[in-house]
Write a structure and sequence with these properties.
Layout: E1 9-10, H1 20-29, H2 42-55, H3 60-74, H4 76-92, H5 102-121, H6 130-149, H7 153-156, H8 158-178, E2 196-199, E3 207-213, E4 222-228, H9 231-260, H10 265-272, H11 283-289, H12 295-317, H13 323-330
Antiparallel strand pairs: 1-4, 2-3, 3-4
Helix pairs in contact: 1-2, 2-3, 3-4, 3-5, 4-6, 5-8, 6-8
Amino acid sequence: MAAISSGYTVHTGDDPRALPEFSALKEEMSKLSHPARPDVDWARVEQLCLTLFRLNGVELQSAAWYTLARAQRAGLAGIDEGLALIDGLVSHQWSQFWPQPTHVRVEIFAWLVVRLQQVLRTCVFSYIDLPLIYRTEKRLAHLSEVLQRLELKHVSKLDNLRVQFHNSARRLESLAQEKGVVSLSPASVSSIEDTTILVSAEQSQPQLMYVAQETMSSVQPQIKVVRALTSSRWKVGHGFVAGVVLCALTVTGIGWVKGMRQAPPLAQALQVTTQPLPRTLLPAQLAELRHPDNAVLLNQLQEETLAASRAQLASLDALPVLWRLSMGRSY
């Protein structure tokens, strides 16, 4: 999967036709209908789509092309990943994303269904694919329900794709029963909620997680694209934590050396009166601390920080009511 900066948020897409990336993407996808049938560079299609998501936002045409590219490169998992993105757009941002004409959107859906059906005919499913098939079927059912409310269910042809997934699941269930395997049920697969979270099943490449959530304010809903952690990035995280531990040990050693040279009690009391007040973290530091890569470090520091904060609050609570007034007069 294409490498992009982790943790960025993509807004709802406008008309991308003026961007060179969209022109290059359209030219690459036109190979599908070219008489000579040249090979489509699906890795390039995926990269161009991700670039458009970052520069222009997510719109239906690029999302459909991205879904097909992921289907070609990752099979069933790629289909589910792309449909999760489209489901977020249609469910939460129907009135906002490009293209606006309904008949153009219907044509994009119909084109995508035909292409995904062609991909599915080349796939050979096994019993271990059942959970993902159930999840994709549920996602298509949810998408069809949304389009049903817009009176577009039948013209979009998405239900035909859902039926194809349903039939594939039935065949796998029948084979499992013949072999005496305990079959799964659709109820065992978690349902699609208002907030759709998807982690790609590919383990050989970096993963993306799409989070589409609806806001309650007048602010435009957004689709957040977050890079999921991979094993190689975990190694980087371990190195970061090791560096923090080393720094902590160094600071502790310096403090111990300073403790050996302690000043007289009266000098210490005088120094305490000149200590600066605590400072809050800068916005950039808060954002870095909340990054998924620093989750382990945050969990390690959370309890210690909370304990220190409680101690400070307890000491303030124990002060006399007129303490501030008396301290002000003393100076």
